[in-house]
Amino acid sequence: MATVISIDRLKRFTNLIWVLQLGNFFIRGTYYMVWPFLAVILYQKFNLSATEVGMLLTGSSVFSVILGFYTGNLSDRFGRKPIMVAAAVIGIIAFSWLAYADSLLSFCSAIFLATLPRSLWDAPSKAVLGDELKDPKDRELALQLLYFLVNAGAAIGPLIGIWAGLTGEQSSFLLTAIAYVGLLGALLYTFKNTHNTNQKKLASSHDFTKIIKLLKNDHVFLLVLLANMLILLIYAQGDSSLIQYLTRAEVPELVTLISSILIMNSCVIVVFQFPLLKLMENIEIKQRIYIGIVFLAISQLVFAFNSVDYYWGWLIGTFILSIGEAILFSNMNVHLDRLAPAKLKGSYFGAAGLCSLGFAIAPLLGGIVLDIWGGPILFVIASGLSIVTIILYQLSDELKRPDFESLQLN
Questions:
Q1: 155 and 223 in contact (C-beta within 8 Å)?
Q2: Domain count of the chain?
């Protein structure tokens, strides 16, 4: 069996793929300097409750996810370039605004705008991998590397922020805006020197309405979508909801603990992702996903029963969560890539972006449960939901898919 990790496969990566890979690294690095501290800023500067913070983050994220679904289809019909360029331009505007917003209305408006670039960028950039790389193993390596570099950026970002004294300061959002400027320049230059016709017009006959009808009949994809949505909902309880819980519990050295959690999360993925890939290389994709879900469930139980003042308990839970994440998220993307028809990868990855609704509604649902029942109950519920996701994946084996060969996808 051909190995996924191979220098020969890396040599087949085009310049455009490397721009996407490195662009994600720099964007995510600057993003993680301050973005995870939004809940802290909204609580300390504007005195918002956990539910209010959740409503704000959820409302803006839901809109961006729905927009990402539509723009994934647009990238199939009109090409990847205009959508990704728009994402970079909006990123420049949004994070510049976020750096200087001084009123609650202005700050909330900037948050709303800042959620858009990621959803605009995600589906077209992943679809480019299918355009440029025809070998499934090449695409798997590219998706694994993409996730690795994203987390490498997330690991380095907080360290730079702490070293520069920028962590939690609004002005540091300007660094993310500058990173988007660099990404925009690299995109324009690379696309100008790219002659791949796949980047132009791919599936003009399949407009958004036709894609909706097609997806309605793809029951396997829809059930996987629901399962992935729940996985992101569970995972986010160890992210935004955990930070809100620790903030309101007045944990000693809160900023240091949050920074340690973020660094632990990213460093574990950076260190373990490729060893885990090599270890699990001959295990079927869905079996890998089941293993990742088990780690996710255990991490939530650790968070539920850890004493608020036990610093290392939070890091142990984060370590387990991060192992699960390293297994889950990259393999979920590989699984979705294999489910997506070649000519409709943008549309399918755009639809797969709806999974992020789980992440988007997590701050709201988590905030409500935190306000009513507290953190331990929240994390026990999240752990229980993990069982549901495994059942959904198993049920998807019994369903049928449309006959893509009979469809006119050109």
A1: no
A2: 1
Confidence of residue 197 (pLDDT cuts 50, 70, 90): very low
- 364 burial class (0-12, 13-18, 19+ CB within 10 angstroms)? buried
Question: Is-contact 317 176, C-beta < 8 A?
Answer: no
Q: Could you give the CA distance from residue 161 to residue 171 in angstroms, rounded to a whole number?
A: 11
Question: Which pLDDT tens digit goes with each residue over 307-321?
Answer: 888 888 899 999 999
* Residue 241 CA, distance from chain mean position: 16
Whether the predicted pLDDT of 338 surpasses 50: yes
Domain of residue 349, CATH code = 1.20.1250.20
| Interatomic CA distance for residues 199 and 82, integer angstroms | 10
In degrees to the nearest 10, what's the CA dihedral of 165, 169, 173, 175? -20
pLDDT, one tens digit per residue, over 373-383 is 888 899 999 99
Domain span at residue 303 reads: 7-400
Mean pLDDT, to the nearest integer, of 52-65?
A: 75
Query: What tokens does 61 get?
Result: 């994220």
Residue type, 26: F
Residue 89: predicted pLDDT: 92
Instruction: Say whether pLDDT at 99 is over 60.
Output: yes
- Dihedral over Cα of 310, 315, 320, 325: its sign: positive
pLDDT at 190: 85
Q: Which two tokens stand for residue 402?
A: 């449309």
Cβ neighbors of 183 (< 8 A, separation 6 or more) are 23, 26, 27, 88, 91
Does some domain include residue 1?
A: no
DSSP string computed for 101-169: --SHHHHHHHHHHHTHHHHHHHHHHHHHHHHH--SHHHHHHHHHHHHHHHHHHHHHHHHHHHHHT-TT-
DSSP 409: -
